[in-house]
Amino acid sequence: MPPKAFISYSWDDDAHQQWVCALAERLRADGVDATLDRWAAVPGDQLTVFMETAIRENQFIVIVCTPRYKHRSDGREGGVGYEGDIMTAEVLTSQNHRKFIPVLRSGPWQAAAPSWLAGKYYINLSGNPYSEQHYADLVRALLGIRQTASPIGKPLATIHQTTATSATPRISTDTSNSEFEDIKITRVIIEDITEPRNDGRPGSALYSIPFALSRRPPEGWGELFIESWNHPPRYTSMHRPRIASVHGTTVELNGTTIDEVERYHRDTLQLAVQEANRRYRKWLHGENRRRQQEEARREDLRRRIEEGTSRIKFD
Asked: Which of 30, 33, 137, 140 fits as disulfide partner to 4, beta carbons 3.0 to 4.6 Å?
């Protein structure tokens, strides 16, 4: 099921309400079940009960911060003030701080953040247009696919030991002995497939489909994969360049359907992965040769220096 997120905001003016509505619609298009009071509450509802239920039952609360929101939240005024009471109470009782995600929309953070949010990591969407990178950070936090740390390597794996008491590591030019292991696509991540908008606009029937990789690719592999996807060795007339991206251990096609993947994109995905593996291994082979030649040059220089210094006498 897609993650559920309730958006808490103040009704500053018509432009701000439209912006919040557009944000919610975009989050829904990107796989988040975003909810607004204006969509869910109907005349006759007990608003206090609605707000309590929304905050309790949604997985995330996205808090759109403005100076007016801060004023009403800190002053416990209106619906924003009541929501603030409920949210602070839940933080105190559940300690689930990551449920509440602040989004800065206008003003400096100090002037827009309610007191209880002052020290939290926030998403800055204050520009017009706002930062796509920051918006992607928000979506990944809601979807639970934020970038994670790379695996821990061997001790001193990237350090060249060149002292006289240490042996200089030798890097084989035989790529079959290198530590790079071919990456493969293992499955479709069914639980993270988004839903199409289906609003009648061009492309609204398409959606995003993620695929799991066998392991986290090394740095640079993702760029090779994307280039290989955009220009594969073979492809059909249904090929869609520029829809592929790599995030951590996931490859994503943003703008396709499961039928297209089954009929066309599966083979192209495998080709792109194989081509990225081949090109990365070729690069690694050249890098190994370059490093070996550089190390040989250093050893030769050190040998000549040692021979020269042995002939210099001061007695």
From this structure: 33
Q: Please write the tens of the pLDDT for every residue from 22-55.
A: 999 999 999 999 999 888 766 666 677 888 888 8
Read off the pLDDT of residues 102-152 as tens digits, 9 standing for 90 and up. Answer: 999 999 999 999 988 888 889 999 989 999 999 999 999 999 886 666 677
Q: List 7's β-bridge partners, or say none.
A: 62
User: Is residue 17 a contact partner of residue 69, using CB atoms and an 8 Å limit?
Assistant: no
CA end-to-end span of the chain: 84
11 class by beta-carbon count within 10 Å (0-12 exposed, 13-18 middle, 19+ buried) = middle
143 in helix, strand or coil? Answer: helix
Whether the model pTM is above 0.70: no
**Omega into 196 within 30° of 0, i.e. cis?**
no
Domain spans of the chain, in order of start = 4-143, 175-302
The highest-level CATH class for domain 175-302 is: alpha beta
What b/e readout covers 230-260, taking b as 16+ CB neighbours within 10 angstroms? eebeebeeebbeebbbbebbbbbbbebbeeb
Six token digits for residue 67:
């100076």
Burial class (CB in 10 A: 0-12, 13-18, 19+), 25: middle
Q: Identify each DSSP E strand in 119-243 by its residue range.
A: 123-124, 185-188, 207-213
pLDDT tens-digit profile of 259-290? 888 888 999 999 999 999 999 999 888 888 88
Give me the DSSP letters along 117-135.
Answer: GTTS--EE--SSSPPHHHH
Higher confidence at residue 62 or residue 237? 62
DSSP string across 12-30: --HHHHHHHHHHHHHHHHT
Distance of alpha carbon 249 from alpha carbon 267, whole angstroms = 19
